[in-house]
Amino acid sequence: QVQLAESGGGLVQAGGSLRLSCAASGRTYSINAMKWFRQAPGKEREFVASITRSGSTPVYADSVKGRFTISRDDAKNTVTLQMNSLKPEDTAVYYCNVRTFGANNYWGQGTQVTVAS
């Protein structure tokens, strides 16, 4: 089992920045990919960004490319999402997700990000 705890959400004005963090605990040695998803009211959960343990090039949704940066610290078992130039359409609950080498998925509880226009 892997447990995830997100932090860093909040209210910000359009054009501002926020930094989300997710700390993993439990069987962290089994983690391969670490990802962020988001879900806006009335919409389906959507992929935001991912990064693998191998350090390969991170992958981003087109809607956040050039504005968001995902990074991970395997020594601390954390993944971070730096969000710059935020837009009102970035308003959503952001979820941390990890996928293990055994293809199991784990989710955090989510953290609210609200961008005011």
Overview of this structure, please?
With 117 residues, the protein is mainly beta. It is globular, with a radius of gyration of 13 Å. 30% of the residues are buried. It has no helices and eleven strands. It starts with a strand and ends with a strand. Strands 2, 4, 5, 6, 9, 10 and 11 form a seven-stranded mixed sheet that branches. Strands 1-3-8-7 form a four-stranded antiparallel sheet, with no helix packed on it.
Given as residue ranges, the uncertain stretches (5+ residues, pLDDT < 50) are: none
Percent of residues in beta strands? over 45%
| Helix-strand category | mainly beta
Based on DSSP secondary structure assignment, what is the total number of beta strands?
11
Give the overall pLDDT as a whole number: 95
Radius of gyration: 13 Å
What is the H/E string? EEEEEEEEEEE
User: Can you give the helix content as a percent range?
Assistant: under 10%
Main pleated-sheet profile:
7 strands, mixed
Shape: globular
Question: Ends: how far apart?
Answer: 40 Å
Task: Determine the number of helices (DSSP H or I, runs of at least 4 residues).
Answer: 0
Question: Which terms summarize this structure?
Answer:
mainly beta; 56% strand; 117 residues; four-stranded antiparallel sheet; seven-stranded mixed sheet
Summarize the structure in short.
This protein has 117 residues and is mainly beta. Helices cover 0% and strands 56% of the residues. The strands form two sheets. Strands 2, 4, 5, 6, 9, 10 and 11 form a seven-stranded mixed β-sheet that branches. Strands 1-3-8-7 form a four-stranded antiparallel β-sheet, with no helix packed on it.
